[in-house]
Amino acid sequence: MSKEKFPRKPEHRKRLLYLDSVRGFCTMIIIVAHAFSHLMFWDMNLIPLEEVSIIAIIILAPVIILATSAPAFVLFSASALSYNFYLDIKEFIKFKSENIPNQKTQIDISFKDPALSRIVKKNLISYLVLLVASLAHVFLFHYGLNWNGRVQRTLLTGILETGSFTSIDYEVFFQTDAIGLIAISGIFNVGLIVLLLRKQGYYKPKRNLLILLGLIIVWYILSPLFHNLLDDLFWQSLNDGRYGITLLLKFIVGPPMSIFPNFAFGFAGIIYGFGFAQEQSRAFFRKLALYFSILFISVSGTLILINGFNLSPESFGLFLPLELQILDFAVIQILVIIFIEIIKYSKKSKNEITKSTRIWQRLGNVTMTAYIFESVLCILNMKWYIPLWEKLPQSSLILHLEVFIFVGMQFALWYGIILLWEKKNFKFSVEWFTKIIRKKLVKNNKKK
């Protein structure tokens, strides 16, 4: 047997450029949507909803539609995870075939193998670091939310919002934000991918596809059942101080980013990741997005016709209506296929595509960092920005200008920070810390 050890330096692996771009696009939506919400809903409430002009609503329609689609990042994360995981297995099989005499055509995949177990550990470590970042976010940096009957504020951002040291709202610790959802989903998906690919599973792509499609449907069917059973128990245990039960329920139905139904985004992400690793056809992805969007828009529309639809800013700290979450799933499929079409299947050269999508690529490099700290920057800027407008007549036009200029400034400021930070390879960002910690822990495991 060859003395060469796996993993070797991987052969040139194609990056999923569409994934980097769509993640960056959604990062822009986070920055813009939260800037609007701070001025219009949360802190300033400059323009009552009934007074927002129809022109503003038309301009904001795409942002409004995507503003509740934070679970899209679960899909992006799962796509990258499954794509790289699948290619790691593919390279492992190739290595075995080339270096082990009389090796069978189809190799049993065992994750007890040190090389494969390192791949699992590497990914688990990344998601565990994100889980810690999530806990820091909901305790220190998140903006105030209507939570358990009153507006509750995090420690550091709460001081900025109120202008004074506030008592600590310990209950915010039990919120599940988008980063926590990505982390919990990622840990679950690592286990799911292992189950799908172990033994001879790697050689059964159709079976794996059917399992994942079935999981998406089942997950949405089970979601209202779990919420009906456990939502009241979550709030009751929180109010009674039974924090052990509350913590457990946080990881099952904890608002606002509950794993039911949002894990379904991760299952869809695995389908996309596997599909690209298996070099599926353009028609495969078109059909996937088309069938998903038609099915979920139809279901969402039917539920809205039956139950009606009411979404106010106060509900953003609670459980979003199921029909909205189902619609979000459809919208994200449409967004993903648009980026796949214009980037993956573009007739332009790779350099031209990279150049034309540079803005999204940059934003996608620090998605987690922007998500955690954008509220802090937003509130700091409101402190000096709002007084500049106080001497002007508070007409509807002035108020609308005040909001739109602020949002533009926030995005420009973030992009400027990212341009400068890029020169330092985003050192000390959440993403940078994640890579450093993962490398150190995986290296220590190797030595043992």
TrEMBL record:
Pfam family, one: DUF418
Presence of keyword Transmembrane: yes
Every DUF418 domain range: 278-415
Keyword DNA repair: no
Keyword set, alphabetical order: Membrane, Transmembrane, Transmembrane helix
Ranges that cross the membrane: 21-42, 54-87, 124-145, 178-197, 209-227, 247-276, 288-306, 326-343, 363-386, 398-421
Designated name of the protein: DUF418 domain-containing protein
Organism: Promethearchaeum syntrophicum
Lineage: Archaea, Promethearchaeati, Promethearchaeota, Promethearchaeia, Promethearchaeales
